[in-house]
């Protein structure tokens, strides 16, 4: 991975309900879960993509902010979001 903004930019995840899962997925040929973080309502995680982490999956209702903008993930029960 080249030393671009991908490695220096932070993204912010704020849980909008209890039990939000932030799951880190590995970089490279094998894409697997390597880390799971649980956030309760109001808790904030500030993270970067790294040489170990190339993707993040978020389960539950959360607000996600990055240099690309802002998006809200849907709640676990919601079907339309
Ligand atoms: N040890 C992991 C890493 O350096 C920690 C990590 C960084 C992480 N960014 C993440 C875990 C995003 C979950 C989601 O890659």
Class based on secondary structure composition and strand pairing: mainly beta
CATH architectural type: Sandwich
Give the terminus-to-terminus CA distance: 33 Å
Radius of gyration: 13 Å
Overall number of structural domains: 1
CATH H-level name... which superfamily?
Answer: TRAP-like
CATH class: Mainly Beta
Which terms summarize this structure?
1 helix; 4-stranded antiparallel β-sheet; binds tryptophan; 3-stranded antiparallel β-sheet; 81 residues; mainly beta; 7 strands; Immunoglobulin-like
Describe this structure in words.
The protein has 81 residues and is mainly beta. It contains one helix and seven strands. It has a single domain, classed as TRAP-like (Immunoglobulin-like, Sandwich), CATH 2.60.40.50. It has one helix at residues 5-8, and strands at residues 10-15, 20-26, 33-39, 44-48, 53-59, 62-66, 69-73. It has a four-stranded antiparallel beta sheet with strand order 4-1-6-7. The chain has a three-stranded antiparallel beta sheet with strand order 3-2-5, with no helix packed on it. A hairpin with a 6-residue loop joins strand 2 and strand 3. The radius of gyration is 13 Å and the shape is globular. Bound molecules: tryptophan.
